[in-house]
Specification:
By secondary structure, the chain is an alpha+beta fold. The chain has 3 domains: 1-54, no CATH class; 57-93, no CATH class; 106-142, no CATH class. It has 6 helices and 4 strands; from the N terminus they run αααβαβαββα. The strands form 2 sheets. A two-stranded parallel ribbon has the order 1-2. Strands 3-4 form a two-stranded antiparallel sheet. Helix 1 (3-9) runs antiparallel to helix 2 (13-24). The longest helix has 16 residues, at 71-86. The mean pLDDT is 92.
Length: 142
């Protein structure tokens, strides 16, 4: 039975909710009893995220969560981040994906480049205000 089928099969609220969280992170196709060593690294990460969706008051730091994802999966990650924030969690995301940056409540842009030519805070504030920062490479693309 897939996780998606299990959501409709089980009637116990606690079991149903746990399966629903797994569906919410896009792993609806996994099967009950599937061994963890058959999952990819990305699937394992999403399974960990599913476990966190019911928690509140935590701080999460995500380093490039969209790396290697298809564009359609990025929307799912944004939804998960929004849900974590809506539950009262703080989510700090280190990311280069422009869709994720646009979705942020607050941006800290570090640069102007990487390595020895970086490390300076160029901008701190709301995404809409970043466009006024002439030193930021990110602002040119947003």
């Amino acid at each position: 039975m897939t996780i998606a089928e299990a959501v409709n099969f089980f009637i116990q609220k606690e079991i149903k909710n746990k399966h629903k969280y797994i569906v919410d992170v896009g792993l609806h196709y996994l099967t009950l009893g599937q061994l963890l060593d058959t999952l990819s690294g990305g699937e394992c990460q999403r399974l960990k995220l599913a476990k966190e969706l019911s928690k509140k008051g935590n701080i999460y730091i995500m380093d490039e969560p969209t790396t290697g994802l298809h564009m359609s999966d990025i929307t799912g990650i944004l939804t998960i981040i929004d849900r974590l924030v809506d539950k009262g969690n703080t989510v700090i995301v280190i990311e280069h994906n422009l869709d994720v940056i646009r979705n942020a409540d607050w941006i800290i842009d570090v640069g102007p480049e990487g390595g020895s030519r970086g490390g300076q805070i160029l901008f701190e504030g709301a995404p809409g205000d970043l466009r006024n920062c002439k030193e930021s490479i990110t602002s040119k693309y947003l």
